[in-house]
Amino acid sequence: MRIRVLLFAGAKEAMRAGAVDVEVNASSADNTVSVAELMDSLRQTHPPLAKVLPNSLLAVNQEYAEDDVRIKEGDEVALIPPISGG
Amino acid sequence: MSAAESVTNGTGAQLPPHICLREDPLHLESVIQQVEDGSCGAVASFMGTTRNHSGGKEVTALDYEAYAPMAEKTIAEVCAEAQAKWPQVRRIAVEHKLGSCPIGQSGVNIAVSSAHRADAMDCCRYVIDEIKARAPIWKREIYADGSEWRENAEWRETIAAKKGCGCKH
């Protein structure tokens, strides 16, 4: 399964792109992948993100997601590096 | 509650928040006008402005970027929580800057109206604190000799709540 991950701020600069596509091995049972598994795939396939990933969260459909949340095809996924609004 | 009852007991129903991310310069009057109401005896406001120094470095400007749809959704959730905590709050208005924000200009403006001052002031504090902890908005500090993406201290608590610990995995 291929998942598009939106990038912002330092992550966008590291990849020089506003999004990356990540190929993941989805569970055969329900064709989903966990947040933790997607993070691992990102780390392995996109080395420039290695520095920012430990302090980042994934947002799934515009909600911060814990490691065990399942991502399915068509979900909106974004990598949220440390925020600094306000 | 009828309009007449509303006037008699001095409280109005809560109004949906005004939330706006914008590229043009922010003005405090804009958020204040959004919340002013005859039933309110208090309007509390907060401006977060660009400071000319950070960590011993001279800052020349800030540059804001947002994951806009999620930022607006998150701020709406914060406002809903705040209105539940302070039922006397009439309305909350939040405007956040996107793009370049020169020294002294406002990056975020918040106004809260309520029947009495304590609720308005406490609610305003809650809204800015939660925005800094949760809204996916980023600021890059621009220095004479470079730039850096900043991190709010509150982000550590948000990470810890989602990952179960604050350590680096």
Automatic annotation (TrEMBL), chain A:
<dbReference type="InterPro" id="IPR044672">
    <property type="entry name" value="MOCS2A"/>
</dbReference>
<keyword id="KW-0547">Nucleotide-binding</keyword>
<keyword id="KW-0501">Molybdenum cofactor biosynthesis</keyword>
<dbReference type="GO" id="GO:0000166">
    <property type="term" value="F:nucleotide binding"/>
</dbReference>
<dbReference type="GO" id="GO:0006777">
    <property type="term" value="P:Mo-molybdopterin cofactor biosynthetic process"/>
</dbReference>
<comment type="pathway">
    <text>Cofactor biosynthesis; molybdopterin biosynthesis.</text>
</comment>
<dbReference type="InterPro" id="IPR016155">
    <property type="entry name" value="Mopterin_synth/thiamin_S_b"/>
</dbReference>
<dbReference type="Pfam" id="PF02597">
    <property type="entry name" value="ThiS"/>
</dbReference>
<dbReference type="GO" id="GO:1990133">
    <property type="term" value="C:molybdopterin adenylyltransferase complex"/>
</dbReference>
<dbReference type="InterPro" id="IPR012675">
    <property type="entry name" value="Beta-grasp_dom_sf"/>
</dbReference>
<protein>
    <submittedName>
        <fullName>Uncharacterized protein</fullName>
    </submittedName>
</protein>
<dbReference type="InterPro" id="IPR003749">
    <property type="entry name" value="ThiS/MoaD-like"/>
</dbReference>
From TrEMBL, chain B:
<dbReference type="GO" id="GO:0006777">
    <property type="term" value="P:Mo-molybdopterin cofactor biosynthetic process"/>
</dbReference>
<keyword id="KW-0501">Molybdenum cofactor biosynthesis</keyword>
<dbReference type="InterPro" id="IPR003448">
    <property type="entry name" value="Mopterin_biosynth_MoaE"/>
</dbReference>
<keyword id="KW-0808">Transferase</keyword>
<protein>
    <recommendedName>
        <fullName>MOCS2B</fullName>
    </recommendedName>
</protein>
<keyword id="KW-0963">Cytoplasm</keyword>
<dbReference type="GO" id="GO:0016740">
    <property type="term" value="F:transferase activity"/>
</dbReference>
<dbReference type="Pfam" id="PF02391">
    <property type="entry name" value="MoaE"/>
</dbReference>
<dbReference type="InterPro" id="IPR036563">
    <property type="entry name" value="MoaE_sf"/>
</dbReference>
